[in-house]
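REQUEST FORM: STRUCTURE PREDICTION
Request ID: SP-0412
Submitted by: Lab K.M.
Chain count: 1
Length (residues): 206
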Amino acid sequence: MISAAHFDESAKTWDSDPAKIARAEAVADGIRKGVPLSPGMRALEYGCGTGLLGFSLAPHVSHVTLADNSPGMLAVLDDKIAAAGIRNMRSLKLDLAVDPLPDERYDLICSLMTLHHVEDTDRILRDWCALLRSPGHLCVADLDAEDGSFHGPGFTGHNGFDRTELGARAVRAGFNACRFSTVFQVTRDGGAGQRTYPVFLMIAGK
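STATUS: Completed
RESULT:
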């Protein structure tokens, strides 16, 4: 697993990577096309990092809570929110592996490239379901199943996900009507030259 300290160190330069910006915009576009967003909705982005996805969604909903367990990422996020004068976004330090569920409930929960870092997939899906109002939508963007070359040796998280299996896990956690689409392709050195890794968007209803 990659530690919060690693992300603390990466936070200041996170937004300087055009690929990360393009990925967040592509996922946000997929969410806007697949979910009927409205001005009254309250959203939670879990594992938000510097909030690239949340910033793209904020104009289309009432409020976005951006949660992460990296103080470094949240510090950069808070600076961005303050600099932009945005009033419908707030940061929240949260790690559902150890912290209790927040009291607030949401109409939309989303995550981008976070789930493969979470050890207990079934637990996080149940927690997200508990935090979601009905009707509501969960939008998870992450890697298709891969051979471990995306992160390389030493990574102890999930090497992506099989879509059918993940959809079945979401249904067991309390969701319904799971649907998948490919929204982005990550290109990086996979150990034997350039490799392309598809990023899916799972939209699950409650």
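NOTES: The mean pLDDT is 93.
Reviewed by: T.R.
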